[in-house]
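Fresh eyes needed here. I'd like your take on this protein's tokenised backbone:
***
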Amino acid sequence: MKDDDRKIIISKISEYRQTESPFDQGMLGSPVNRWVAILVFIPVLIIMAVLGAFFFAAFLALFVMAAGVFGIRLWWWRRKLRKTTHTQPEEGEREGDSVIIEDAQIIEETKTGHKKNI
């Protein structure tokens, strides 16, 4: 039964191929028509390639400009943040690199001599 279904499908496909017109098989029939189509399509392809390169360059330039603006904005925020953290001295800090710790405790180590009893 399954083989009969396959035969029907194959026969319908082969009938469809046979009923196509010769114009559908090779879109352009004569060699003159093919050469005219080639001569028309070549300039169209060249123009499309140039326009594609132009738009690619334009979008690339816009992307670079947007990335530059974003990078400058990030740099500006970091600079502003660094200024605010450096202008407010922390407690116990003087100008320069030295830090004075006010609540320090001096811890002395003492050595105790333990003798072992033998």
In short: The chain has a mean pLDDT of 76.
